[in-house]
Specification:
Blueprint lengths: L1 H20 L3 E6 L1 H10 L6 E5 L8 E6 L11 E8 L10 H10 L7 E7 L2 E7 L3 H7 L2 E2 L2 E8 L5 H4 L2 E8 L4 H9 L3 H9 L3 E3 L2 E2 L12 E4 L3 E6 L10 E8 L1
Antiparallel strand pairs: 1-3, 2-3, 4-6, 4-8, 5-6, 7-8, 9-14, 10-11, 10-12, 12-13, 13-14
Helix pairs in contact: 1-2, 6-7
């Protein structure tokens, strides 16, 4: 509760400052839990607000507080960096945690970085714009692999090129507890525990009701387990089970 109250206070303070100064102000990147706090309290802010993470499917997003009497154009202070091996032939097989660890080893706080995902042999990082030059100058190695860092000017096509693994399966019901149990190989008690710990999110909003009925296209996340897009017309097979597909994001 203390963390939730601190997050609400930070967001309210930014909104109030935006209102009085008549300028657009931005939060840090919010994780899923913080985004849920934002969505639950946005009607109480002093200004309009919206959120964005640099691309359509972003999980970590920045909130912009926008006063009514605004007389200038603005953009989110977000840049996308492409991190790739300098010598691909000799590169190690790097993982998400390797790159994130190297960045945090430079003293960069997680809240200043948005999503980090892999595509082919490169990693794409969304980050606050003031860190762009610092990362380019200082991120020279990830583990023992020399890397190059370049800014991506056009990110409009990134969402359509994000890689994911599709798993086809069947479920007894389109209830959310059934779906996450099947997707993450949870037992019934393990699935229930995720709801009790408020770790389950659908389309960026926290869901604590295990009886929630999912729809085709829902983006489902369980904290520390990853996320997937649910694909199904919920047609039945011969045994009365519902056919589904899980698109797990890399």
């Amino acid at each position: 509760m203390k963390e939730e109250e601190l997050c609400k206070k930070r967001l309210h303070d930014l909104s109030m400052q935006s209102y009085h100064k008549e300028i657009v102000l931005f939060s840090d990147f919010l994780n899923l839990n913080e985004r849920n706090i934002y969505e639950s309290n946005k009607h109480t802010f002093s200004t309009k607000s919206e959120s964005f993470g640099g691309y359509e499917l972003a999980e970590r997003q920045m909130v912009a507080f926008i006063p009514d009497a605004l007389c200038y154009e603005w953009t989110y202070p977000i840049v996308c960096l492409k991190i790739s091996p300098k010598y691909p032939k000799f590169a190690e097989k790097l993982q998400h945690r390797d790159v994130l660890g190297a960045l945090m080893h430079l003293g960069i706080e997680r809240c200043t970085m948005g999503d980090l995902f892999q595509q082919d042999n490169a990693f794409y990082l969304f980050v606050q714009d003031h860190l762009c030059s610092f990362i380019q100058e200082n991120l020279l190695k990830v583990r023992n692999t020399c890397v190059t860092v370049e800014e991506v000017e056009d990110t409009s096509e990134l969402s359509s090129h994000i890689t994911y693994e599709t798993v086809h399966d069947v479920i007894a019901s389109n209830r959310l507890d059934c779906i996450i149990a099947k997707a993450y190989h949870f037992s019934r008690s393990q699935a229930s525990e995720q709801f009790l710990q408020e770790k389950v999110f659908v389309n960026g909003k926290s869901v604590t009701d295990c009886n929630y009925h999912c729809k085709d296209g829902d983006l489902i996340s369980v904290r520390q387990k990853g996320r997937f897009r649910l694909r199904s017309d919920f047609s039945e097979n011969k045994k009365g089970k519902l056919r589904v597909s899980f698109d797990f994001f890399a």
